[in-house]
Design brief:
This protein is mainly α. 36% of the residues lie in helices and 7% in strands. The structure holds calcium ion (CA) (3 copies).
């Protein structure tokens, strides 16, 4: 049991040496995860009605809008699931 304090001290020193880098690596990442918007809340990229405000997304990447923000809260609330290029009836 005499060696235990030495081992504990060495282990503690190792943690102290590693801790600053560990903290620097994780803290900003945690902050970013907490503040990053959800993918669904990404800014709209398409102005479908020509009023200068982006109001639709091309989430499939086929060049046509398939998600629309119809109430201007910045989140999509209408979706084209059947591929006709218009929001589907609810
Ligand atoms: Ca618009
Ligand atoms: Ca909306
Ligand atoms: Ca549709």
């Amino acid at each position: 049991m005499k060696k235990l304090p030495m081992i504990a001290a060495a282990f503690g020193a190792a943690i102290l040496i590693a801790a600053p880098g560990f903290a620097q690596d994780t803290s900003p990442e945690t902050d970013a995860a907490e503040t990053a918007p959800a993918p669904e809340a990404a800014p709209a990229t398409i102005d479908t009605d020509g009023d200068g405000t982006m109001d639709a997304w091309d989430q499939r990447g086929d060049g046509k809008p398939d998600s629309w923000d119809t109430d201007a809260d910045g989140a999509p609330d209408a979706f084209d699931q059947d591929g006709d290029g218009a929001p589907d009836p609810k």
